[in-house]
Amino acid sequence: MFKYIVLALFVAKALAGCDNQCSGHGTCGLNSKCLCYDNWGLGLSHDSGDCSDRICPYEFAWVDTPDKKGLFHKYAECAGRGICNRGTGDCECFPGYEGKACARTTCPNDCSGHGRCEYINNLGYAATPFDYKQGEFAPQEPYSKFNYNGWDKGKIRGCVCDPEYGDVDCSKRMCPYGTDIMDHRVNMQQAQKYQVQNIVFMPYQNYLVPGASQTNQLNGDGSTWGLDGKTFALTFKSKLNETFTTRPIVFRSKQAGFHQFLANIQNALLELPNRVIDSVQVQGSSDHLDQVMVNITFVGDHVQGPQNLLTVKHIVCSDGCTPKLTGVELSPGLQNVTQVVPADFNSFECGRRGKCDYQTGICTCFEGYTGLACNTITALV
């Protein structure tokens, strides 16, 4: 009888045991069911089983089927863009995807060593539709840079090329841009127009009190309140994505020093390296009670055609920063720089009269043309 009792206890204990003792990755619960530790399970269904398989990280699915509520981009293992290695718990991502749970895209050719791989919400202006959104508090703005908060803001990436490099993978050297010397305007009797950019300087104080009197808005010497004597700088981005910032420019709106102020802007732009701006004209007016307007006309051979808008650096830039600026407080919600006159000149790679060598960034001009951008005629046919 004793032997039968011992045998019955042994059989009962064996039947109560869990499969493979939960593989050491879980505890045995009721009904001989394994309670797996985190990230352990079995198979595609991730049932407990014997807890012998790893579960890979989850991320928002790139593509999935909406549920009955119409919700999509739900969490999915390896974001639906990789195969889970059940032995290691790592996602083996498909080409073009990388990171934990294959959560982000790769950049083409790693930007060829000539650029940065950036998330879509960190890309420059015009990278997302929201960049063209009307400002809520400044509806007069035609466009502005807004933060991108789409579901893929931390997933999709693209290349931001270094200066003088282009294409989607930043693998090609860029060639100079210039006007097509053989291009004809509709009316040749009219003087050719150069691009004119307008800069508006409006003190922050005037924005707070738009109905203020002239006494409040102007100093006794006729200078715009709060700006005179302070420094700012202008940043110019060339067609080759080169960015240059001027030396500090002292703001002057007094009638006695206004012409010198305009001359200082002109000289600062002409002093930029590599003659990136070879000729420019600066005019302006300070007869407004609440603003100073400056018109900059690009008349040089190196800046023919439409150019990128200048950027006013008006934030304080003190120790450890260059150029060192005291800053000018401008009214918020206003677009400082606009194009007021478009150029009759065009702007083409190699002036549309040559072929770019993307290895060297040098134009090979067609017969009869020469120059950096092939916009000089050497022979008349």
How would you describe the overall organization of this protein?
The protein is mainly beta. Among the domains are: 107-173, no CATH class; 177-185 and 347-377, no CATH class; 196-341, no CATH class. Helices cover 10% and strands 25% of the residues. The chain has four helices and 28 strands. The strands form twelve sheets. A four-stranded antiparallel β-sheet has the order 20-21-16-23, with helices on one face. A hairpin with a 5-residue loop joins strand 13 (165-166) and strand 14. The protein is elongated, with a radius of gyration of 33 Å. 27% of the residues are buried. The model is unreliable at 8-15, 135-142 and 206-223 (pLDDT under 50).
Summarize the structure.
It contains four helices and 28 strands. The protein is mostly beta strands and 381 residues long. Among the domains are: 107-173, no CATH class; 177-185 and 347-377, no CATH class; 196-341, no CATH class.
- The secondary-structure class comes to mainly beta
Number of strand segments: 28
| Unreliably modeled segments | 8-15, 135-142, 206-223
Main sheet characteristics: 4 strands, antiparallel
Strand order of the largest sheet: 20-21-16-23
Sheet-strand content, in percent, reads: 25-35%
Percent helix range: under 10%
Query: Can you give the mean pLDDT?
Result: 84
What overall form do the CA principal axes indicate? elongated
